[in-house]
Amino acid sequence: MSENTNxxxxxxxxKNGLAHKHVGNVHASDKEMALQNARDLYTRRNEGSCxxxxxxEYIVSSESEDGEAFFDPSNDKMYRHPTFYNMPxxxxxx
Amino acid sequence: MxxxxxxxxxxxxxxxxxxxxxxxxxxxxxxxxxxxHAHSEIIGMQPEGNxxxxxxxxxxxxxxxxxxxxxxGHGLYLYSACETLGVSRQELIQQLHDGKAKxxxxxxxxxxxxxxxxxxxxxxDGAAIVNQVSLQRTSYGPYSRGMIKICKEESFxxxxxxxxxxxxxxxxxxxxxxxxxxxxxFWWPSIMMFGPQDGDSPRTGNAMKWKIxxxxxxxxxxxxxxxTVHQAEIIGLTIPDPDLKWNEERGHxxxxxxxxxxxxxxVNGKGPCNKQRLDHHKKAHIDGKWVRDAAKAYSEKxxxxxxx
Lengths: 94, 308
Fold this sequence. Notes:
Chain A is α+β, with helices and mostly antiparallel strands and about 90 residues long. Chain A has helices at about 30-40, 65-70; strands at about 5-15, 20-30, 50-55. In chain A, strands 2-1-3 form a 3-stranded antiparallel beta sheet, with helices on one face.
């Protein structure tokens, strides 16, 4: 399956209610085949309740090098976390 | 500059991801190692596939089928990881067919009796597990994640093999003899699966520096031998090495000299089954061409439908 196929990224939801998680990819020439191949390859041990496949070319990723620019701004905003605030002694259930 | 930042990342145990900058030699080393690993999983289906139709019970047959199917899956996980380095599946298969990419030499030995299914699961998968557990900590993210998944699934492979050996070793004298014979034939090639001794392994330096490998060939081999000796003893089989002896001082087993001439002969194509394994793979690939063509034609047709 290589000459003519696309690469599809595979996401498995392991249990109803949980988020789909990336597990790897498969080769397939169309979306039904991508789903079939993903089922065969990634759920041999009953791992899933739902599968998403997305053509790899549609995935846009940030790059590790950009990590600082992307994620640093939230580092110095500890006031977004409840533990930032001083509570009066004896205050309960807050 | 890039190189220094890269090494800092490695030294601080952060994973390298596909889009990160990496030295060209790091990429090359990974492509060679991961594709060799992938090819080994796929070629490794053949010696075991040989016994599916002759498994001695329905239970044994179902287990063997599941195991061979797992090997296919593991090969595909590894091809996936390898492709993230910018090489295509097609190129990888071509390199295998051209003899430019290798696979584990152990699969160039024939599987002569049912006991060989036991020896392969117990020893060959056992050795692979020691290697793969170590590689879970490899520095390349996709390879590391693949190894974690594979190790999880692999846990039954070694046990099913050891179960076969234990059963045969406690069976009739003929069965025990078959088990011992399988151990005799697979022992040395199994411990040579870890590759040349550290002094003769030119690429180990970089692989360790870049944390592609986390332990050297000799360390992994020693760890496998130390684990396996007792397993052989308790099922009453004898490891075919007269020099095998516990060394109190080292806290490890000492073992005899490996025959590296044979090892390199087999690597270089002179093993009993090299030609058969590769020919079979090529034939399967060619035989599957019409499936790929049909899939392609179907997807083209779907495209036209959407446009119109």
